[in-house]
Amino acid sequence: MFRRSFNRFCAGEEKRVGTRTVFVGNHPVSETEAYIAQKFCDNRIISSKYTLWNFLPKNLFEQFRRIANFYFLIIFLIQVTVDTPTSPITSGLPLFFVITVTAIKQGYEDWLRHRADNEVNKSTVYIIENAKRVKKESEKIKTHYAVRDTIELRTVESIDNLRAAIECEQPQSDLYKFVGRINIYSNSLEAVARSLGPENLLLKGATLKNTKKIYGVAVYTGMETKMALNYQGKSQKRSAVEKSINAFLIVYLFILLTKAAICTTLKYVWQSTPYNDEPWYNQKTQKERETWKVLKMFTDFLSFMVLFNFIIPVSMYVTVEMQKFLGSFFISWDNDFYDEEINEGALVNTSDLNEELGQVDYVFTDKTGTLTENSMEFIECCIDGHKYKGVAQETDGLSQTDGPLPYLDRADKNREELFLRALCLCHTVEVKPNDTVDGVTESSELTYMSSSPDEIALVKGAKKYGFTFVGVQNGYMRVENQRKEIEEYELLHTLNFDSVRRRMSVIVKTQSGDILLFCKGADSAVFPRVQNHEIDLIKVHVEHNAMEGYRTLCIAFKEIAPDDYERVNRQLIEAKMALQDREEKMEKVFDEIETDMHLIGATAVEDKLQDQAAETIEALHAAGLKVWVLTGDKMETAKSTCYACRLFQTNTELLELTTKTIEESERKEDRLHELLTEYRKKLLREFPKSTRSLKKAWTEHQEYGLIIDGSTLSLILNSSQDSGSNNYKSIFLQICMKCTAVLCCRMAPLQKAQIVRMVKNLKGSPITLSIGDGANDVSMILESHVGIGIKGKEGRQASRNSDYAVPKFKHLKKLLLAHGHLYYVRIAHLVQYFFYKNLCFILPQFLYQFFCGFSQQPLYDAAYLTMYNICFTSLPILAYSLLEQHINIDTLTSDPRLYMKISGNAMLQLGPFLYWTFLAAFEGTVFFFGTYFLFQTTSLDENGKVYGNWTFGTIIFTILVFTVTLKLALDTRFWTWINHLVIWGSLAFYVFFSFFWGGIIWPFLKQQRMYFIFAQMLSSVSIWLTIILLIFVSLSPEMLRIVLRSVRRRSTRNPNLELPMLLSYKHIDSGYR
């Protein structure tokens, strides 16, 4: 019923879909119509994944989706249901340990989310109830609306008596879009309608700056707020190491199945002899004789799988998770990332991608606020072709009576004043006056605030020359001129800036009644809308300033006749009141208004490079990374910045694919195809196809850089199919791959994401990293493999949506070259080591089957099977993966070329994997046959006592534990007290446990097969010598490698370039081995 009433006041509006109606204060707007209270969600923010009730089932479901966990669950169920050679505890206890530790970690992380949610949900707010301010918790707020155009309602009573209704769009995630309107009802039946846009919407989490309090009503609450909807939009990213782990698991699962199949086959070959099948001391039962042979073979196959199942390292997942979680703190704790200006350091939003920082191939960076400070300074201006530059006193103006200024000649005084008034009026700057200011006599104390630093710079630039923007009062913009007089202009309309129009305008009414439109924007957006004869004089200065690296804006105006304004005003109000397609309708009206303008002049604003931005880009280039700059700025400005930050060198040959080069021909697509073909031929001649790395070729040949703008990119991506050149994209990518640097200018946010996605899908799937500081960078940050946000001056949208956040661009150097390098080396060594030590563990068990008639007899005791991965070998590798520094951090940072040695997932390729696998096979073989030859002697003691199979297995297990632990000690370069504690402590714990486990008769065990085994074993000198000898033989390849590396180090000039695992690093022909 309210909808019908509402439509009476908004005649002509069609039926709307996807909108909501909100009543202010839950009061009906009409006493004659029925009021039905609407239900909206409460104001609770929920970023957590679990609750107390669903934690257990949901977490278990997620953990058993992992192939290793699910595999061990199946093995455990087989051990429970089938008669297997090992106890179910041997698989169940490690699985329980892994599941428990992972659940504790994930539960702790979720508890932190709950705590953060409660800080927001339990925060104190005041609501209006029955004309009183009532204190409540934030989560208990219902949906209301913040009323506009009711400035006079400043008391609780007046707010409580307000009768109004709002119709707005349903919740959606776009932070910069809001469409709605409000109808305010008075005592009469006539309603006052006002449009509502993004400027009227205060986002959740915003901070009040120029007022102590506001009265407002929430249109969206809880999980329907824009911030909450943006949090839910993130996709899960997986690192290259995780993909390698899954590939290795498949290989080892195949090895496991092969071992089980071989043993099952050979068992029945062995039993084909009647004596072997049924010896006199082990006669079969009648049930065993009647069992179906195929079923018996399948059961034996499962039993062998259970016997060899420890080749799959179930505990590796929990160790990797702990390594990532704990290792991420090193980034947060790094004092080099601390910025005193914002009093913050680095932030890790996800720890799953730490090692990916060491594998980056492409870096995509924004320009403004990322490479530059985003701290604008007004440098100069141009009025009617006359240049004005220099620092003037506040009392100085542009008139002759105000003293000399450093310019050659001057424009007409009226044009000068018109230009400065345009700077003071065409903006969205707000003024925060000092409390001590009385009137406008102390205008120098004014503080300007704006979402864009450019606008503040322009307002301050006008102030330098005598025109001061004082603020807005009752809808009037107030300007103090050179004569200290206050001029008031009624602000009629603001045509806001957007990335498509690339300009903004205001319509104001002077005190004399004239209606003026002032417009400022990019030259490409303003020049087509002004008189042609006015462009040439200004264009020269704009291009010159752009070449100097300054940000340029053009200023234009036009006078609007009263009759024309009435029509324009009606169109603007109609467009602003629309709930459907508002943006398109407003854009059409704006386009019609901003025509036939007169160009006044242009401004030049300097955005200085960030500290060490050039050095950082040089280091990234030296590390073999390709750096692309994606910016919305014009080509000349961006090009100058790229030279300043050394993205382009003086000897870099630039290839341009821009509107300027394409428009030389009538047929743009033909000209584009001609340029693409020409550039490809040139680069193919310079870089012929070969097996050598392009990274080396860059240092030997001419360097090339590519410049492309947004319109040309659109032409490449959307080329017509009938043009005969629909392979534009393929040719373009070939050119990009052979260029050391690429500049993409005039880019829309969506185009930035398209560029990143295009490179991600290249052959070889290169790892991409995006870094930016603004909301327009969020799309490319989310699209890339690794997203890094700068805690800049354009808000925190980028840092909130990123994987990592740093205060400055210079911090990217250490983040990648040091932290990324170390993270990757550590976790790659961890993964290879886990598969290595488990193959060492299981191979003797496999070989043992050849000597026990394939009877599925275990070689190791159940306690050893259970605790091998949990207790005996877990802590040393965890400490190594957290603390190891095979190369000093300062060396990694100072010599970026070391980064190339690990690129392309070098340590987890087939070569290093086979090296570790063959090393494990060699050591496992030495363990078994070395001990087997020892047992060729019937008695190992002087008393003639004969040792049995459990002593045989315990000797092998002892050699195994000491060998794999000492192997890690040999690999360790950076020793700390923690490394000493866990390495030697683990060995001591194994010895203590073995004495303890074999020194007591345990009542819960049916068989005391390990009783006094370990103590008796160590009483033999032969066994002592065998253990020491076999450990030495097993580690001999590693010790030989260390000796050779030491000799090589003495002969090389730069020992810092030596890396720990020679066979685990990529070989490149750049002088580094």
UniProtKB/TrEMBL annotation:
InterPro entries: ATPase_P-typ_cyto_dom_N, ATPase_P-typ_P_site, ATPase_P-typ_TM_dom_sf, HAD-like_sf, HAD_sf, P-type_ATPase_IV, P-type_ATPase_N, P_typ_ATPase. Its cofactor is Mg(2+). Residues 36-91 form the P-type ATPase N-terminal domain. Keywords: ATP-binding, Magnesium, Membrane, Metal-binding, Nucleotide-binding, Translocase, Transmembrane, Transmembrane helix. The chain crosses the membrane at residues 64-82, 247-270, 301-320, 913-935, 947-969, 981-1005, 1011-1035. The active site is at residue 366. GO terms for cellular component: endoplasmic reticulum; plasma membrane; recycling endosome. It is found in: Membrane. It comes from Capra hircus. This is Phospholipid-transporting ATPase. Its EC number is 7.6.2.1. The gene is ATP11C. Residues 800-1046 form the P-type ATPase C-terminal domain.
